[in-house]
């Protein structure tokens, strides 16, 4: 099979790296992604121990973790579809809200039912949130700058995953699992607030551009 005829491609120059790194909206997305990394790794590492500490049967806890893994396979495509229907920001806010709710449930209801609800929602939402925030990061810059923007916010994600286990482990040692998971929920509130700020600022800028054109 012959190669298709070569086509001339217009390569757009990228923006200065400093301009990308200091983009206020992109920094906010980075912080959001850092919180996602922080909360995701803590949930993944400590939820099993939390269930056992609360008195759940070891076999049941293991089965719940397996269910979470199976659900996570479908999380990204499902939330991609939700994003297509509701819009990127609405999908992110909905996913993060559900994520926060699922984290709080075992804090107030450390029972079998509470953990089942937590695991089902977490498995259905967690990887979807990551995919949505990744897509959000690429929308804050020009198309030719998306690789730099994506790698930049990934640094925040990695930092959150690095800090998460040690900080949560320290809190668990001194105060218990419920306080650690309550802290996760507080961080999620911050990420939701930053998402709303990005959405509001973007709307204001769009209105300004329309007014200037008129």
Descriptive overview:
This protein has helices spanning 17-21, 24-53, 58-86, 88-108, 112-138, 146-175, 177-213. It has seven helices and no strands. With 214 residues, it is mainly alpha-helical.
Q: Please give the radius of gyration in angstroms.
A: 20 Å
Report the total helices.
Answer: 7
Distance between the termini: 53 Å
Shape: globular
Low confidence ranges:
none
Q: Please tally the β strands and state the result.
A: 0
Specify the structural class.
mainly alpha
- The proportion of residues forming helix, as a percent range, comes to over 70%
Bin the strand percentage. Answer: under 5%
Rounded mean pLDDT score: 87
Brief description of this entry?
The protein has 214 residues and is mainly alpha-helical. It is built from seven helices and no strands.
Fold blueprint:
Blueprint: H1 17-21, H2 24-53, H3 58-86, H4 88-108, H5 112-138, H6 146-175, H7 177-213
Helix pairs in contact: 2-5, 2-6, 2-7, 3-4, 3-5, 4-5, 4-7, 6-7
Structural descriptors:
214 residues, mainly alpha, 7 helices, globular
């Amino acid at each position: 099979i012959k190669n298709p005829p070569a086509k001339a491609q217009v390569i757009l120059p990228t923006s200065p790296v400093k301009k990308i790194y200091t983009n206020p909206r992109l920094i906010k997305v980075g912080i959001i992604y850092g919180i996602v990394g922080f909360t995701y790794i803590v949930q993944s590492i400590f939820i099993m121990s939390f269930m056992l500490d609360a008195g759940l049967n070891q076999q049941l806890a293991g089965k719940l973790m397996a269910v979470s893994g199976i659900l996570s396979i479908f999380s990204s495509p499902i939330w991609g579809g939700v994003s297509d229907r509701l819009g990127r920001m609405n999908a992110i806010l909905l996913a993060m809200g559900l994520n926060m709710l699922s984290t709080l449930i075992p804090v107030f209801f450390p029972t079998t039912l509470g953990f089942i609800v937590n695991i089902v929602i977490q498995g259905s939402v967690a990887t979807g949130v990551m995919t949505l925030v990744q897509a959000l990061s690429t929308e804050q810059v020009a198309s030719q700058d998306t690789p730099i923007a994506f790698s930049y916010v990934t640094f925040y994600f990695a930092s959150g995953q690095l800090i998460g286990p040690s900080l949560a482990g320290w809190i668990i040692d001194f105060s218990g699992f419920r306080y650690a998971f309550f802290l996760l929920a507080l961080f999620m509130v911050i990420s939701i607030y930053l998402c709303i700020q990005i959405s509001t600022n973007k709307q204001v800028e769009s209105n300004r551009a329309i007014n200037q054109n008129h």
